[in-house]
Amino acid sequence: MATPNKSYGIRRAFVQTFASDNIVLVQALGICPIIAAGVSLQRAVALTVCTLVAMIPCSLLMSTVGKKISNFWRAPIYVLLAMALMVGCGFVLTTYVSPELYAYLYLFLPLMSVNSLFTYHGAGFSSNRSPLLALVDAIGTSIGFGLVICVVSTLRELAIGGTVWGIPLGFEARFPEATYPFAAFILLGFMAAALQQLKKKYLHGSQEEVLIGE
Question: Domain residue spans in the chain?
């Protein structure tokens, strides 16, 4: 059973990875799949689940044996394993979930494995962490990426066709240009700015609490 300090450290690591140091909005990694495929909530959820399925075992492997592998080989091994897992996710998608959804994503799944989202971790980050912290980081990174791509995809899907998850909402105002990359960049810019404001507000509130305590 984890001690209180250890549990706090784990929660803090998750919040930092998921929100305050969000892989997309702060570190500007993993943007390409959001711009290219983030036009429907179904695709966004599928990419999020596939990212989680691939990143967890890759990060755990690197945290366990990564230090025994030379720096030159870490990233290629990580990427090859991620690619194999993404191909497996594609098989599950087309066989058991939705062939139509796989038809939209079949190019993006193997490309995701060489995305900066994965290569950043494969270059040495996971190998320098304990398995528990690597697991927390993998989950926080995947969910942080998933939250961003799901919000962007929902808004773009609504603007393009007036639907969410393929369900019509009777939304009359349409903006077909939302399929273009500039729409995703604008949404990401607003989300990044909103996150920075939240961080400043939280930091300001924490400083006030410290001053009151003194």
Answer: 23-213
> What phi and psi, each to the nearest 5 degrees, are found at residue 149?
-70, -30
Residue closest to 208 by CA, chosen among 5, 25, 200: 200
Residue 29 CA to residue 209 CA, distance in Å, equals: 33
Q: Pick the closest to residue 120 from 78, 80, 181 (CA basis).
A: 78
Q: Of the candidates 43, 145, 34, which has an alpha carbon nearest to the alpha carbon of residue 97?
A: 43
Which residues 6+ apart lie within 8 Å of 64 measured at CB? 131
pLDDT in tens, 36-69: 999 999 999 999 999 999 999 988 888 888 778 8
Tokens of 168: 């019509």
CA atoms of 44 and 14, how far apart (whole Å): 21
Structure tokens at 87: 């191909």
Helix (H) or strand (E) holding 53: helix 41-65
C-beta neighbour count of 119 within 10 angstroms:
16
Q: Which amino acid is at 173?
A: A
Q: Which of 144, 152, 138 is nearest to 189 (CA)?
A: 152
**Mean pLDDT, contiguous 10-residue spans, the chain (214 residues):** 59 86 90 92 95 91 82 82 91 93 88 80 70 89 94 95 89 84 95 92 56 44
Tokens 């080989």 correspond to what residue?
73
